[in-house]
Amino acid sequence: MKKTLLACALALATLHPAFAQSAEGHPDWPGAGQLFAGANYQPVDRTLEQVRYDVGLMKQSGFKVVRMGDLSWDYFEPADGKFDFKHFDAVMDIVHAAGIKVILDIPGLPAPMWLHHKYPGVDITNQAGTRLAPAERYMDNIGDPNYRRLAMRMADTLTKRYAKHPALLAVGYDNEIGNGFMSYSEADRKRFVEWLKKRYGNVEALNKAWATQRWSRRIGSWDEVRLPYADGPGPAERYLDLRRFWSDVTIATLGDLEAVRKKNAPNKPVLSNYWDWSGRRGFDFLGSYRQHTTYGAMGFYAGDPINGGWEAALIKGGMTTPTWFNEFAAGGGGSYGSKGWSRMWAHFVLLMGGQAAVAWTFNSHLGGEEQALMGLIDHDDRPSWRLTEWADIAASYAKLEKLGFPRKVEPKVAIAYSFENVHATSPNGPSNTARQYIKTPYLKQAHGGFEPLLKDNIDVAVIKLSYEDLSRYRLIILPGMYLLDKASTDAVRKFVADGGTVIMTAQSAKVNDNNQWHNTPLPGQLTDVFGLRTNEFYDWTGTVKLGDEEIKTSIAHFEVLEPSTAQVMARFTNFDGNPPAITVNSFGKGKAIYVATPAQPEIMRPLLRQLYAGLGIEPGPKTPDGVFARAVDGRVLYVNTNNAPVDVAIDGAMNGVLSGKRFNGTLRLEARGADLIEK
């Protein structure tokens, strides 16, 4: 079996360098024909008798994987340099005896209390200069050299011990890394200065990048540099570099752990539970994932299909490997009392190229920060209805994995996203006056471009433009890319010149790499590509005439476009002079489309549907609102995210693989139901 999987992996590796890097290095790659349902498990406060009971329930439920080790540093290392693996050794053996595989998460966060007491530099210092005790998890300064040294020692010790254990499937790093805090100690300031020196070289270049000639902010020497505030006033340029600095610290920490894995467990893939979009710190995952991961993996707590689908695409990036949802709400919603919720989303993620759903968590916690977060078994160790539902998920996955799953996702459409743009458009990112301009949050624009594609059942990649091979795509959408750095700008220019099509929306390409407005016509450095310049803007809700369709916009903002070589595709009909609403320009072999409004479904949906046929983009199966579907090896998987039954038109008589029912012309999906139909 291993030889067959490896042969498949090596064949796929020729398709893309990112896949080649991950698949060739991992003979145990859990690829085609394997789906995994399981649970997160914390054995730290379970006796071995209780562990045997728990694992017996897991086996009985058909679970194939558990994720363990996260959040447990002092369980393995209760005192500095004194490791204790006796209990976990037994846990690993019990799990293996049940035929269950293990994702071993290196517990670099949170750091133990003994580490904070011995090395106070690991404490967080807030921006007022107060050193804080580690009152909650993730209050660890991961930039501190002692933290990094000891986190690597923990990783080295743990991976050496379990690298060859037969239960080990994969390794993960630092649960929810990205959700930690930035720190403001003097040592952090000095590390920030060293980072600036590498980036800018000298103080004169720093002054130019930070526009310190404005408002008497000139810096005379490196000693005068202070850490910018993340929360509070401050120039946009400095704030952006603060975020970049901490992103690089996070990526370096991941790099430490990846170096340890490559040394001790080179044949095991990486499945980390990332939280790169966390507002606390976050990091540039889409610009770094090839350095530290094999699979996109994340905690999945979807509130609705648009948010859930977006996050699933975001964590996949340009990867060709399947996605792991290795922390997954066990019961549903905020109440954890919604039957069918987990089952629905466990099937929804399969549409997005998912390979695993791992429930958080197996046991309901008696103490700590998540006491009321219900697990698969109740606080009194009684199996709950949630365990029954997850057993149903495991049984469904066992059927589906033989029928073309995990689904291979090869998008022809991509949406541009960047860590820098997120923070350039955040409340502290732009200048005081720019905040009056950026009234549409960046994520709202991103969703505005994503939603119509998701509802048309089309695969979408979310990518950093300068990090990917853009030739894989036929259409790229740039929704509200206020900061479009030089590398991304050059990538867009080449993509269009080589025959690609791009759609850029309002509020894009306004500032350069340093978060300063371009001193050229806008969109910066791309006016010839789009064949126009943008000028003034109005807070105005417009009516747009696109073909025969009259569209009323929902966002009160539009830019006045001044076409040069661009042709007008649509105009505003309720504004003086009927200015252009959408233009298209031929550049090289490709097309560049500019939308004068922020990205919103009302505009993007009809525009995209005009483009599909010409670009060879085929929508997926037609579905009612709230129902999503993908074709897989001649079958179609449907997922109903509505809280009521829905009838879906199908072509003739079909069999429901999951339901065991026969349908003729109409597929009946129950509330939150899913089915795979075939002839």
Question: What do you see in this structure?
Answer:
Among the domains are: 64-267, Alpha-Beta Barrel (TIM Barrel); 413-615, Class I glutamine amidotransferase (GATase) domain (Rossmann fold); 627-678, Immunoglobulin-like (Sandwich). Helix content is 32%, strand content 20%. The chain has 19 helices and 25 strands. Helix 1 packs antiparallel against helix 2 (17-24). Residues 1-27 have low confidence and may be disordered.
Key attributes of the depicted protein:
seven-stranded parallel β-sheet, flat, Rossmann fold, alpha/beta, beta-galactosidase, EC 3.2.1.23, signal, TIM Barrel, Immunoglobulin-like, Glyco_hydro_42_N, nine-stranded mixed β-sheet, zinc, 679 residues, disordered N terminus
Short description:
By secondary structure, the protein is of the alpha/beta class.
What does the oligomeric state look like here? single chain
Low-confidence sequence ranges: 1-27
Mean pLDDT across every amino acid position: 93
CATH homologous superfamily title of the domain at 64-267: Glycosidases
Structural class: alpha/beta
Percentage of β-strand residues? 15-25%
Beginning-to-end CA distance, first to last residue = 29 Å
Number of strands: 25
For the biggest β-sheet, the strand order reads 11-10-12-13-20-19-18-15-16
Enumerate how many helices there are, as a single number: 19
Morphology: flat
In the CATH scheme, the class of the domain at 64-267 would be Alpha Beta
Q: What is the CA-based Rg, rounded?
A: 26 Å
Percent of residues in helices comes to: 25-40%
Family: Belongs to the glycosyl hydrolase 42 family.
EC number: 3.2.1.23
Keywords: Glycosidase, Hydrolase, Metal-binding, Signal, Zinc
Pfam family, one: Glyco_hydro_42
